[in-house]
């Protein structure tokens, strides 16, 4: 599903070898069977080398490198924020950790290797990692979208049916395990059918390729591959988008459209505002996901029905752009959490302060946690001080806990 677009193959009856900027002609001959691949006799096919000029390679490398760094660091910080502070360990945040694990996996274990393959049209990472790389790609993508669905369902139940018991820690971990198990099953064909092969080019150089070889044929010639791609698209894009659109629409009507009977207390109003902020954040996450992945799925549908699209001279850069947009989804979620959630925002500040990323000025501003500074911080951050009905227990053993005492 996530392999790079194959080199352009166009039947051509002329036999001379032609070398120009983009293409050269090469005859594909199957030694074991003694036959030509296209079964048209001693014919040749056009092979598009897909080697970009150096300055474009540098540009794409910078774009992908920045994306991988932001996605990896951002998602690891999200995991640290939730696991390091007990007050952050809610059901929704556990699911956000699961989402961050999946996004960190795709950025570290998949994107760099696929990008290298697309850039140089050569797979130097070996036979095992060819299989493992594609397996991890589908597992992490599936886990991400199924986690988003789980969050939407959890929010739906909590807001539409508030009297129903909430999920506990054990049930949440069980759902997360089921998500990874289902994603692994969905990705299992990649372990079974991806393989590597060495092509000898007319100039004597070799090219290692990583591609799926299905039981009914190689990639782009397999009916099974087409059906798998369609099933993958339906299960990991259209059905989740439809499901999340419905659940968040119902939740939106409940939170913004309904009117409560009687007078609301300040605590009830604060609770509604908190739920609205969480739902807004998750709606933004889902919209970004839908925008990032739509061109990717459309590309494979279009090329399935119109194979000549891959003959376009700039198809490699078009696919690189589509692939970058899809993979960049893994770096947007931490940015959204930091932007729309005050607890995560303070957690990010605390992380970079601990790492010295804010410099000496940041260190001097955050060094002091005396009684006066802490009390002033709590007065400005805690909405419970408005009516004076809540008491706040402060643990001086954890600087990080002090930073995150304020509610969203």
UniProtKB/TrEMBL annotation:
<feature type="transmembrane region" description="Helical">
    <location>
        <begin position="322"/>
        <end position="340"/>
    </location>
</feature>
<keyword id="KW-0472">Membrane</keyword>
<keyword id="KW-1003">Cell membrane</keyword>
<dbReference type="InterPro" id="IPR000276">
    <property type="entry name" value="GPCR_Rhodpsn"/>
</dbReference>
<feature type="transmembrane region" description="Helical">
    <location>
        <begin position="95"/>
        <end position="120"/>
    </location>
</feature>
<feature type="transmembrane region" description="Helical">
    <location>
        <begin position="58"/>
        <end position="83"/>
    </location>
</feature>
<keyword id="KW-0812">Transmembrane</keyword>
<keyword id="KW-0675">Receptor</keyword>
<keyword id="KW-0297">G-protein coupled receptor</keyword>
<dbReference type="InterPro" id="IPR001681">
    <property type="entry name" value="Neurokn_rcpt"/>
</dbReference>
<feature type="transmembrane region" description="Helical">
    <location>
        <begin position="132"/>
        <end position="153"/>
    </location>
</feature>
<protein>
    <recommendedName>
        <fullName>G-protein coupled receptors family 1 profile domain-containing protein</fullName>
    </recommendedName>
</protein>
<dbReference type="Pfam" id="PF00001">
    <property type="entry name" value="7tm_1"/>
</dbReference>
<feature type="transmembrane region" description="Helical">
    <location>
        <begin position="226"/>
        <end position="249"/>
    </location>
</feature>
<feature type="domain" description="G-protein coupled receptors family 1 profile">
    <location>
        <begin position="74"/>
        <end position="337"/>
    </location>
</feature>
<feature type="transmembrane region" description="Helical">
    <location>
        <begin position="173"/>
        <end position="194"/>
    </location>
</feature>
<keyword id="KW-1133">Transmembrane helix</keyword>
<comment type="similarity">
    <text>Belongs to the G-protein coupled receptor 1 family.</text>
</comment>
<feature type="transmembrane region" description="Helical">
    <location>
        <begin position="281"/>
        <end position="302"/>
    </location>
</feature>
<dbReference type="GO" id="GO:0004995">
    <property type="term" value="F:tachykinin receptor activity"/>
</dbReference>
<dbReference type="GO" id="GO:0005886">
    <property type="term" value="C:plasma membrane"/>
</dbReference>
<keyword id="KW-0807">Transducer</keyword>
<dbReference type="InterPro" id="IPR017452">
    <property type="entry name" value="GPCR_Rhodpsn_7TM"/>
</dbReference>
């Amino acid at each position: 599903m996530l392999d790079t677009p194959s080199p352009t193959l166009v039947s051509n009856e002329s036999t001379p070898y032609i070398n120009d900027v983009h293409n050269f002609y090469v005859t594909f001959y199957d030694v074991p069977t003694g036959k030509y691949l296209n079964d048209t006799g001693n014919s040749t096919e056009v092979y598009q080398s897909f080697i970009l000029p150096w300055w474009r390679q540098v540009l794409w490398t910078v774009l992908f490198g920045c994306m991988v760094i932001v996605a990896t660091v951002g998602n690891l910080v999200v995991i640290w924020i939730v696991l390091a502070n007990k007050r952050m360990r809610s059901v929704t945040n556990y699911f956000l950790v699961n989402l961050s694990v999946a996004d960190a996996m795709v950025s570290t274990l998949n994107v760099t290797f696929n990008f290298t393959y697309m850039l140089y049209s050569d797979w130097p990472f070996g036979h095992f990692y060819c299989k493992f790389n594609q397996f991890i790609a589908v597992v992490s993508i599936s886990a991400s979208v199924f986690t988003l669905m789980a969050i939407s369902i959890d929010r739906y139940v909590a807001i539409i049916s508030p009297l129903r018991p909430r999920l506990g820690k054990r049930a949440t971990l069980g759902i997360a395990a089921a998500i990874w198990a289902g994603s692994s099953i969905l990705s299992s064909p990649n372990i079974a059918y991806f393989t590597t092969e060495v092509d000898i080019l007319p100039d004597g150089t070799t090219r290692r390729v990583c591609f799926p070889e299905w039981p009914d044929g190689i990639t782009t010639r397999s009916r099974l591959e087409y059906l798998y791609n369609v099933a993958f698209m339906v299960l990991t894009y259209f059905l989740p988008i439809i499901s999340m659109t419905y659940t968040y629409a119902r939740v939106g009507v409940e939170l913004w459209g309904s009117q409560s009977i009687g007078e609301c207390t300040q605590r009830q109003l604060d609770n509604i505002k908190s739920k609205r902020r969480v739902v807004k954040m998750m709606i933004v996450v889902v919209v970004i996901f839908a925008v990032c992945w739509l061109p990717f799925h459309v590309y494979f549908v279009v090329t399935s029905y119109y194979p000549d699209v891959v003959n376009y001279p700039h198809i490699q850069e078009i696919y690189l752009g589509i692939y970058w947009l899809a993979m960049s989804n893994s770096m947007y979620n931490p940015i959204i959490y930091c932007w729309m959630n005050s607890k995560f925002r303070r957690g990010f500040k605390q992380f970079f302060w601990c790492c010295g990323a804010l410099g000496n000025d940041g260190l001097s501003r955050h060094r002091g946690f005396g009684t006066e500074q802490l009390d002033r911080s709590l007065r400005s951050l805690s909405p419970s001080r408005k009516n004076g009905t809540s008491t706040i227990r402060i643990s001086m053993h954890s600087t990080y806990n002090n930073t995150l005492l304020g509610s969203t």
